[in-house]
């Protein structure tokens, strides 16, 4: 039966296409019938999916336009109110709270729920023994059990105040307990346990958003989040990509709208993608595949990640053209042959294309066979000069895609460095200019594509965040 509720939840998320594959249309009436029987027995909800609520919701997920399931859920809400009233009369207050919560979750009229809740508070106050609850709360606070269970100090004070909102001892006790809780939050933040600190701050805010110590705790949390983001950026610059991603993800679990952390994860994905391309250029496919997998986990749709996948595929194609070598002489002969083919392709103008037969691909294959060979190193330096000239020429001609290909060849030949970083930014800025032109002309799709190219080259290029915001305001991103 546990599978029933799981399938119902999946259906709520994916709606009809998944529902049609799991439950045929004819099963919706059957689910409603089972729900009606459960309702008649007073079995209103159950974690295993056998309750009336869960069965009606499963039927509604299959047939969203059917009114019978909605009507059934309304009857469940009314029945829950009735059960709450009966439980109050019998002195079963915990049961009454659960039934009332169920009724509210099903959107029972607020006036009806409030009336039952008021009666519940009155009866609890009359029978629970406020003095006993106050003593329990004080004892829990003295034992540093402030939150997290019904018998902790803050839930007990909250329970007392729900029954007697002006009870001075409870108000003062809650104030002191919240100060203790926020002190725990500060200690957690000092130890860089950001998630625990954030949880405690959120708990304090839920109990009393106006507590005097709360602004300071929130400011400390905000400061620690900023510092965690800075630590993540230092990890990223040092190439510690796993640690950088983990830090950015910690920030986002606490503050999902943190744009700096969101951009930081994009930077990490781009760094993984570049690492994948470098490994592929040396035919180190295990390392390339691992780096690409990490990049895809963070930003599967990023241009840099897609480009890395294409680069690995091209490298594999080039590797497949290499014949098995028998010995040193055969290796030398094959290297010389590849260098001759590279020179011939260069004369024809096939510097980067076609894949597998370009001058660059032939040179890359030779480098994989004999990376320290003198002739290979000379040809690599020659090809590097050609790739630099190619980049500048294509950039002058505003052929940004061609300039990007030339830049990729330079990176594969010479790795990353300050000059590459500068040219990445130059090309990214040109893509931003193209994006601005396309947005002004009303070509939102082209503007978004240009922004993606800029991000893939250098996510930290000045102006990227501002242009992204312009696209968002224009409804294009």
What does this structure look like?
With 477 residues, the chain is mainly alpha-helical. Among the domains are: 2-126, no CATH class; 131-212, no CATH class; 223-320, Alpha Horseshoe (Serine Threonine Protein Phosphatase 5, Tetratricopeptide repeat), CATH 1.25.40. It is 78% helix and 0% strand. It is elongated.
- Would you report the number of β strands? 0
Which segments are poorly predicted (pLDDT under 50) over 5 or more consecutive residues?
Answer: 1-26
Helix content: over 70%
Structural class: mainly alpha
Spatial separation of the terminal alpha carbons: 43 Å
Mean residue pLDDT:
85
Query: Which overall shape is indicated by the principal axes computed on the Cα atoms?
Result: elongated
Secondary structure tally, helices: 22
Q: Could you describe the largest sheet, including whether it forms a barrel?
A: none
How much of the sequence lies in strands comes to under 5%
Rg of Cα set = 33 Å
SSE order in H/E notation? HHHHHHHHHHHHHHHHHHHHHH
Task: Write a compact overview of the structure shown.
With 477 residues, this protein is mostly helical. The chain is 78% helix and 0% strand. Helix 2 packs parallel to helix 4, helix 7 packs parallel to helix 9 and helix 9 runs parallel beside helix 11.
